[in-house]
Amino acid sequence: MPSLPDLIAAARSGDRLISFSTDTVPALAARPDRAALIFAAKQRSQTKPLILMAANSSDLWQFTAGSAEERQIWQQVAEKYWPGALTLVLPASDRLPTAVNPTDPTTIGIRVPNCAIARHILAQTGPLATTSANLSGQPPLQTMEAIAAQFPEVLTLSPSELDDIQQMLSQTKPSELPPVASQGVPSTVVRWQGNRWEILRQGNIQLDFQ
């Protein structure tokens, strides 16, 4: 099994897919400009966009485009629910690699996960294109062992390596939320459409913008 530095180096290089736990379901991830690797591995239709996941919201706003008033609204929602299981689908800036949303690069989903291990990885890789780890149309895989078996080309960390990272984080960053295991439920997804929020998928976070 690869080490954490191996996993981070692979993601940075763009040569390999990686997988890691989040607060929802385990993620399949790639450097944004290499997102085609995810579509190929999952046999996923290019009409189904990926999302960008990052360690902090400040890493994600550069990929969005909106007025000052809109950005203030978006950031208020992010401050309330992030890190957490909420994906915001927003107008995309020209910094978004087309590979993340090949058929409609004008929008992008963004999220900061409530999982210390995931944020530790993302802080070192930068924002990554992500989605659930499964073949298209099948249920999300829930364990690193299942992901390694389904996708042998994807780099994953062993349970012992994850335990070591979790212990390290609890000692060095006691002010952060404790590491959160994947809950098995996808994130709530909301889209900014016509100056209002539209709920696309209801997950663990219950929202009502009416």
Blueprint of the fold:
Blueprint (H helix, E strand, L loop, with lengths): L3 H10 L4 E3 L6 E4 L5 H7 L8 E3 L14 H14 L4 E6 L15 E5 L4 H10 L2 E5 L11 H7 L8 H14 L15 E5 L4 E5 L9
Parallel strand pairs: 3-5, 4-7
Antiparallel strand pairs: 1-2, 2-6, 3-6, 4-5, 7-8
Residues in helix, %: 25-40%
Largest sheet: 8 strands, mixed
Helix and strand composition category: alpha+beta
Number of separate domains: 1
CATH top-level class: Alpha Beta
DSSP E strands, number: 8
Distance between the termini: 48 Å
Q: Rough shape?
A: globular
Radius of gyration over all CA atoms, rounded: 16 Å
**How are the strands ordered across the major sheet?**
1-2-6-3-5-4-7-8
Describe this structure in words.
- By secondary structure, this protein is α+β, with helices and mostly antiparallel strands.
- The protein has one domain (4-201): DHBP synthase, CATH 3.90.870.
- It contains six helices and eight strands, in the order αββαβαββαβααββ.
- It has helices spanning 4-13, 36-42, 68-81, 116-125, 144-150, 159-172; strands at residues 18-20, 27-30, 51-53, 86-91, 107-111, 128-132, 188-192, 197-201.
- It has an eight-stranded mixed beta sheet, sandwiched between helices.
- Strand 7 (188-192) and strand 8 (197-201) form a beta hairpin.
- The mean pLDDT is 90.
